[in-house]
From TrEMBL:
PANTHER family: HISTIDINE TRIAD HIT PROTEIN (PTHR23089). A motif (Histidine triad motif) lies at residues 99-103. Transmembrane segments: none annotated. This is HIT domain-containing protein. The active site is at H101. InterPro entries: Histidine_triad_HIT (IPR001310), HIT-like (IPR011146), HIT-like_sf (IPR036265). GO terms for molecular function: catalytic activity. Residues 8-112 form the HIT domain. Pfam families: DcpS_C.
Length: 112
């Protein structure tokens, strides 16, 4: 784990780049995806910088569990608790920002 000064999501968390905040607490920040793939598309990130979900799971499993809790509470509010949770991991899987983020897709019925 090392904070990257060049990391887009670290800058968003610090407020250096604007975002549409959905939720925040001491360890975790959630904001709307700028290019939504569902009616509600929220990114949930740990404040601490980890490159991907595997690093987070290894170093801080409680934070990963908390991210799932935050995703659940967003979906409880937006769509009776139903949601898709995606962690793109690696360039070839479509990861473009290397600060771990959960995509929470909800707010409407999703295609299989
Ligand atoms: P991934 O491709 O899994 O790494 O996801 C990165 C996500 O970040 C994409 O869905 C982008 O639309 C989203 N994104 C990129 N820049 C911003 C931004 N400034 N504010 C909110 N979401 C962003
Ligand atoms: Zn970062």
């Amino acid at each position: 784990m090392s904070e990257s000064t060049d990391c887009l999501f670290c800058k968003i968390i610090k407020g250096e780049i604007p975002s549409a905040k959905v939720y925040e607490d001491e360890t975790t920040y959630a904001f709307k995806d700028i290019n939504p793939k569902a009616k509600v598309h929220v990114l949930v990130v740990p404040r601490r910088h980890y490159a991907n979900v595997a690093e987070l799971a290894k170093d801080d499993p409680a934070e990963l569990a908390h991210i799932v809790e935050v995703a659940q509470s967003i979906a409880d509010k937006e769509f009776h608790g139903a949601y898709r949770l995606v962690f793109n991991t690696g360039l070839d899987a479509g990861q473009t920002v290397f600060h771990v983020h959960a995509h929470v897709l909800t707010g409407e019925t999703l295609d299989e």
